[in-house]
Amino acid sequence: MNGNQKPQQKKPPQDGGNNQARKNVKTMKTNRGQALAASRRNHEMAHSIASQFKDAADTKIIQPRANVIDDGPVLRVIGLGGFDGGGSKNMILIEYGNDAIITDCGIDLGVDLPGVNYAIPDTTYLERMKPKLRGYVITHGHLDHIGGLPYIHQKFPAPIYGSLFTIGMVEQIFAGSDVTPANYELETVVLNQDNHERLKIGEFMIELVRVTHSIPDSTMIVIDTPVGRVINTGDFKIDPEPLDHQPTDIERLKELGREGVNLLLSESTTTERPGRTPTEHSLESSFHDLLHKAPGRVFVATFSTNVNRIQMVVNGAVNSGRKIAFDGRSMMATLETAVKRGFIKIPKGTLVPMANINAMKDTDVVVVCTGSQGEMSSALQRMSLGDHKFIKLKEQDSVILSSTPIPETGNDAAVGNMVDNLMRMGVHVYRHETHDLDGCGPLHVSGHASIDEYADLIQMLQPKFFVPIYGSYRSKKRHIDIAVQNGVDRRSTLNPDNGDVIELTRDKMYLNGHVENGSVLVDNTGAVVPNVVVKDRIVMAEDGIVTVILTIDKQTGRLLTSPDIITRGFIYMRENEELMNGTRAELKRAVAQRYSRIDIDRFKAELKDHVTHFLFEHTQRSPMVIPVVNVVGPGDNKAKPKPKMSADTAHD
After folding, report:
1. Which residues contact 256 (CB under 8 A, 6 or more apart)?
2. What's the pLDDT band for 12 if we cut at 50, 70, 90?
3. Which of 1, 114, 329, 518 allows an S-S link to 122, with CB 3.0 to 4.6 Å?
C-alpha cells in the first residue's frame, strides 16, 4: 500500500477518521479548556522563573515626577545591579550634569536556569548615557564586581580605575575572555589607596580607601561631588589582624567622617549576623596543626581569590616540611597575578607541578585547589568523582574545605554531594561547619562584616543620608535599622530596587523615576541566551516536547504517509504504543476533517491545541507541542517511505 492509497481508505464523511479516533474522542473526560489551562500554567511557571532574570525590555519605565523641583545641583544614583538578589551583578551609575561614572561592573553567578552560566547587568539605559561616561571605578577584584566588564566595556569604553591588585584582576579577565577581541585596547589606571591619592574624573574627585575583605587590595570609593561626598563601601569587614598586615584604614575613615559625608552606600551582605567577624589570623594555627598531623596527602579547597588564605597554607606547608602544588584554572590565573604584583610569597623550592605528585611521598604533599563550592568543573569535584587527570584519592588522604557555601546561591547541596563522594572513598574531610566534631580549629572566616562592624562604620562616617546596597531586600532593611540605631534619621534612608533613580542634593534625598534595568543571560561559551529561549527550556524540562510531522498532498488534502511523532523528555514511546497509535489516529482525523476547510496557520494552531488536549487527557501532562506540516505539490518529489524508528527518535 503506497502513501496515496492510505487517505482514500478513511473517508471523513463516513467515519470522521477511524474507530480508534472516534473512541478516543468519546472517552475524553477533560475538556479542551482544562488541557490548555494546564499548558498555560506551564508557560506561566516558566515565565515566572525566567522573569527573575528579566531584561530591560520588561522594565516599566517611570518618568521623573514633574512636581519635583530643585533649583540647585542634583546628583543621580542608579543601581543597574546590586540592589537585589544577595548583591549580585553589582553595578551603580553615578550621574551629575554631563558626567557619569560607574562603580563596579559584576556578574551574577547564582543563576539556576537551564543552559545559563551567569547573568550580567542589562545596559539599555547606558545607551542614553554613553557620551557622559567618564570611567569605571572598581572596589575589588571579585567576579560579582568585575565579571561584567569584558561584555559591557566594549559597548561603553572608558578608563578603569582601581587598586593595584584589582587592576591586575581586571586585566586578567580581559586577557582570558572569549568575548574580547584580540588586541583589545584597555585603559587602566592604578590608584594608590595608602597615600590617599586623589584623581579628578569629570565633575568628580575620586579616592580609594583600604578595607579588609577576602581578596587583596579591597577598597572603598570616596566620590566628592558638587552636592557633597558619596562613599561606596564595596565589600568589607574591619579585620584588625589580617595576615598581610594591611588592615582597614580606620583613621582615614574617621577623618572623612569629620569632614562630612552626604551619602553612604554600604554593602549589606551579612547584616543579620550578630557580633564581629573573626580575624583571618585566627585560622593560622588550624592549618598548621592539620598539616602536621595528617597521615597522608592533604588537599585544601578554598576560593582562588583568597590570597591571604592561600599564603596561610603555603606557610603551613613550609613549616611542616611539605611541598605544595596548585590546581584549578582560576587558582593558577589568580596566583599568577598575585605573584607578579607581590601579593603572595612562595619560597623557592616549595612549589611542585601537579604531574609530579604521584611520585612523591604522601606526607610530603599538600595541594591547594578550587572546588570549595562544589562547582562541577572544579579540581576537587573532579577528584571526588574519580575524573581527575593526576589524582586518585585514597584512604589516609585528608581534604580541608576552607569555606562555607556562598549565601543566596544554593551551593549547599552541591557541596554536600561532593563531601558524600569524598567520604565514600575513605577520605577524611575537614569542614568549618563541623570543626568541633573533627577536633580541629576553625577553618574559615567570612570576608564580610557583622552587625557591630556595620555599626562602627556608620559611627565613623556619620553620613547625612544612608542607602544600603549589595544585598537582598531583607538584609538591606536590617541595615537601615542598624543605621537608625547609630544616629541616622530613618527619613534620610532609602531601600531602593535596581533601576530606581535616587536624586541627591546637599539637603535632600528622594526617589524620582525608574529606568531600564535587568539581566542579560550568558551561557558557558560566552554567548547571550535570549529570555524567550530560557522560557522554552524550562517548559521542556518540566514536561518534555512532542513534535508531530504531517506530510499532506497539496491537491487532495490527504496524508501521504502515516504521521511521525517524535518525543523528548515526555514518555518512552516503546512502552506507550497505545498512546502513540491513538495520537496518530487523532492526527489522521484532524487532517480529514479540518485541513481542507481552513488556512494552514489556523490548521497548525488547532492541531497544536488538539494534540495538547489529547495528551493531557491520557497523561495529565502538558508537553510543548510543535506541529510540522509539509505540503507536497505536483512538482515536488514523491514522499519517501517512512524510515524505521531508531532508538534516538523512539524515546527521550
Report:
1. 209, 222, 229, 231, 461
2. very low
3. 518
